[in-house]
Each structure stands twice: as C-alpha cells, then as structure tokens.
Amino acid sequence: MAPNPRELGEMLRSRRERLSPAEVGLPAGNRRRASGLRREEVAALAAISPTYYTFLEQGRAVTPSRQVLDALASALRLDEGERAHLHELVHGAPPVTEPPAAETLAPGLGALVDRLDPAPAYVTGRRFDVLAANRSVRLLWTDWLAVPVADRNIVWWMFTDPHAREVLVEWEREAAALLGRYRATATRYPDDPSFTALTDRLHAASAEVRAWWPRHQITRVGGGHKLLRHPALGEFRLDHLVLTVADVADQKLVAFDAPAEILAQLAQLPDPPTRHAHPSRT
After folding, report:
1. Nearest-CA neighbor of 206 among 195, 196, 217, 198?
2. Rg (CA), the chain
3. What is the mean pLDDT of residues 218-235?
4. CA 270 to CA 256: how far, in whole Å?
5. Rounded to 10 degrees, what is the CA torsion of 154, 158, 161, 163?
6. Of the candidates 42, 116, 33, 34, which has an alpha carbon nearest to the alpha carbon of residue 78?
7. Distance CA 94, CA 239 (A)
8. Number of neighbours of residue 237 by Cβ within 10 angstroms
9. Which of 158, 145, 108, 112 is nearest to 254 (CA)?
10. What would the pLDDT profile of 22-40 be if each residue is shown by its tens digit?
11. Phi-psi label, residue 248: left if phi above 0, alpha if psi -120 to 50, beta otherwise
12. End-to-end alpha-carbon separation of the chain, Å?
C-alpha cells in the first residue's frame, strides 16, 4: 500500500478542527475566527516544526516517521483505531508493538529522592506506579512500603484508599486532574495490557472513575500546588515540580517545597507508623 499524503492531510485537518484549545490545555484567546486548533498549536504539541506540519496537511509528498505519527496522534487525541489508520496511510500498516518491559527505577534516582528529605519527593513510572518515595511522602500520603506491590499506584490510591480524602483538602479537584493525566498517558500506550487492566480495576472500584471517565478530560502533566492535611501539622500548602528523567522518559520525579517551619516539623516527626493497607483489589 503506497503512502497516501492527500488522505493523511485531510485526516489531520479534520481532527485538528474538532479539538478545542481547552481539551489540550491551551487558552482559548479572543482572536479565533474558527473553532479548533491552529496548525502551529498542533505542531507545538507534537514537537515538530509548523512548516513541516503545514506540508503534511497540504498533502505534500513527505513521509513522516512513525515517531512523528505517534506524536501527532497524541497531540490530536486520536484513539487506537485512528492512530493505526494514521500509520496505514503513510507506511501501509500499523506499527508493530512489543510488550512493554518491566519498569526499573533509573540508577541513582532512589538515593536522590531520599536525600531530598524532609522535602517530600517521589518517582512515578509510565502507569503512575510509585517507584520510590522518601520518608516525608510516606508520612504525608501513605506508607508505600506497607502497600501491596500491585497497589503501589498513585491513581489507585487516590480513588480507592479512604485516607486519600483525608490527606488532600481539595480531593475532588486533585482526583479529577490526576484521572485526566492518567487518561492522557494511557492513550499513548494503546497496546499495553497493564493500562487496560488498571483502567478496568479503577472502573470496578470507583464510582467517581465511572462517572468522570466519559467526560474525556485530558490534563497535562505539570507543576502546581496541593493543600494537605496532617494530624500533627494541620493544613498547609505544598508547591511542586514534575521533572522528567532524561534516561527513562516515562519516569517522573515529583519534588515538593513547603514553608521552612513545615519542613522542620516534618524532620522531627517519628517514622511512619505501619498502616494496614487495604487488600489488593482485583
């Protein structure tokens, strides 16, 4: 099957025009004459040049790599079938996918997380599994070392552990944003059975996931703030940054900052008591 640049351009244009800026985390602005995203916005989301993207929409005889097509599929929020069709239009067949390898914490990252204490810090993997968490995080969120390995996942904890609603003052806002980030990530791994399994578990366990999933909310990964509640420290604000690990792009270091008095009190608190984690839900 030969490449079909005209149909590729038509598909890209139709998907661009159906997306609103809000759906991809962009401001709407007040000078838009038509609905949908601008070409340069799609190009920025896919990390390609606006000129190259324009050539693709115009149906010129260029052959984007599979990596570029995957980036465009993510930028345009394509589902699994649309992503496969995108590849078929250019390369004649969908990409061959291999089962994802088991995640291994990037070298030195666990030690770095521990050294940041008493500033809270943790590392998540591609599926938001908690791969490392320092003492302060285990004091404030949950003792991840006491949680069954299958449940060491920040999304699962958010929606299934009642303690999450006690810890996070703005639980509903936090939970909705996290589900949007998880959904955005899951669309990049349509052939990863571990995402399908976790999504199914979340739907079975959480009424909020069942209610919110049909909204198709997409939230971009980024920094911000959280309001936390602790029995000894009361309510306080934590600002955080999300840093991508260069050697393992799917792993993210989430590092928090807090007022000096809060960090000093955290340093003086005893080690996390062993909480009886709820059984792993299947």
Report:
1. 198
2. 21
3. 90
4. 20
5. 110
6. 42
7. 42
8. 14
9. 112
10. 888 777 666 766 678 889 9
11. beta
12. 43
Task: Compute the distance between CA of residue 137 and CA of residue 266 in angstroms, rounded to an integer.
Answer: 10
Over the chain, what is the mean pLDDT?
Answer: 88
Q: What residue has token string 């996390």?
A: 272
In angstroms, the CA 121 to CA 129 distance is: 14
Residue type, 282: T
Give the span between the Cα atoms of 11 and 264, in whole angstroms: 56
Distance CA 163, CA 180 (A): 21
SS3 per residue for the chain: CCCCHHHHHHHHHHHHHHCCHHHHCCCCCCCCCCCCCCHHHHHHHHCCCHHHHHHHHCCCCCCCCHHHHHHHHHHCCCCHHHHHHHHHHHHCCCCCCCCCCCCCCCCCHHHHHHHHCCCCEEEECCCCEEEEECHHHHHHCCCHHHCCHHHCEHHHHHHHCHHHHHHECCHHHHHHHHHHHHHHHHCCCCCCHHHHHHHHHHHHHCHHHHHHHHHCCCCCCCCEEEEEEECCCEEEEEEEEEEECCCCCCCEEEEEECCHHHHHHHHHCCCCCCCCCCCCCC
Q: C-alpha 143: how far from its chain's center?
A: 22
148, 137 Cβ separation under 8 angstroms: no
pTM to 2 decimals? 0.65
Rounded Cα–Cα distance for residues 132 and 152 (Å) = 10
